[in-house]
Amino acid sequence: MYDYVSKELPELVESVLPIDPVRRGICGHSMGGHGALVIALRNPGRYQSVSAFAPISNPSTSPWGRAAFSEYLGKEGPQWDQYDASKLVREAPLDLEIRIDLGSADPFREQQLKVEQFVAACRESGQAVSFHLRGGYDHGYFFRDAPADPLAILKQWLARAAELTDRPNPHSLVLSTTGAQGRADARVVLLKHFDHELGYLVFYTNYLSAKGRQLAARPEACGVFHWDRLGLQARVCGPVLMSPGAESDRYFASRGWQSQLAAWASDQSKPASSRAQLEARMNEMAVRFGGNPGDWRKAAPPKTVTRPPHWGRYRLWARTLELWTQGQARLHDRILWSRDLKPAGEGQFRPGAWRAQRLQP
Ligand SMILES: Cc1cc2nc3c(=O)[nH]c(=O)nc-3n(C[C@H](O)[C@H](O)[C@H](O)COP(=O)(O)O)c2cc1C
């Protein structure tokens, strides 16, 4: 194992991948943390850094370590020192960055891990060590309960959803708005773009539709994605702003002739007397844009259609983002991230850092 981790595996990886062998690091958890420390300390110059989570740090004095050493190395003797980080570090200081993370509630901390002994030995020999005691965490790997950037996760989920073969509109979302007298309203729209760096969703609609008027009066919304097959739900809430006209023009120009005419013909959300009235409007628009009545039934565009001023793009900026993953026995994982958004010019916000909070399912 020692030769495999310290020599054979790095040689193989470095022979097939463009890796800079000068910047090697090694890390491990618990028994693996012991291995990482020992390998780094026994091979000066081979690693720039070693990091260990809850490592077994002074095995010659711990019950687990003594049992394992007796079995692998025989009776206690100087050969044990070669596998004990707290003994090896006496040869220090080395040109090596050492980082250790330990949970303050780790049940093995005092009897088995003895991380503090290692840190004391480092201090005695002048070896620099960066030691982080994580309040309340146990022997698990994680001292953070939630990833720092939820946008990267949502981006990944959208990509996974796009691969679903049995879901025709994988990027459709339910968009909820607030109507008159604070009444709730909701409908499905299509996500046309997700900016995973700034964190906004883009959709298109009629600015004079019910949702358009509601957003003009109260520019806040929530968008909900649900991917049943993946057991995932994402909820994005925040301010909604119209995008500059040029962005809407570009997208409108890329749409089919029928969709373009429909954007002119439909006074979205207004009452219609009959289907015949809607078709008459489409005939009228086909003629207005250089075709014949009935041409709207064909996909081929006889002429260019300009964007109606009442139709365009919105950005829903994530002020909060909740990611939900289906769990066993209805113990679903829910993490809610929130951040501040400072206005920064037309259609823009300057987002602050995310704060994460786990929620009960
Ligand atoms: C799968 C699907 C995708 C839709 N995408 C959009 C869309 O991107 N934009 C839009 O205005 N309406 C879209 N609609 C229609 C809306 O759900 C809704 O009927 C229409 O926008 C009027 O809503 P409102 O009266 O609340 O404004 C979509 C409907 C479905 C079922």
Automatic annotation (TrEMBL):
GO terms of molecular function: carboxylic ester hydrolase activity; S-formylglutathione hydrolase activity
Ranges of residues in domain Pyridoxamine 5'-phosphate oxidase N-terminal: 169-285
EC numbers for this chain: 3.1.2.12
Alphabetical list of Pfam families matching this protein: Esterase (PF00756), PNP_phzG_C (PF10590), PNPOx_N (PF01243)
Highest taxon of the lineage: Eukaryota
Keyword vocabulary terms for this entry: Hydrolase, Serine esterase
Keyword Hydrolase included in the entry's annotation: yes
InterPro entries recorded: AB_hydrolase_fold, Esterase-like, Pyridox_Oxase_N, Pyridoxamine_oxidase_dimer_C, S-formylglutathione_hydrol, Split_barrel_FMN-bd
This protein's name: S-formylglutathione hydrolase
Record organism: Geodia barretti
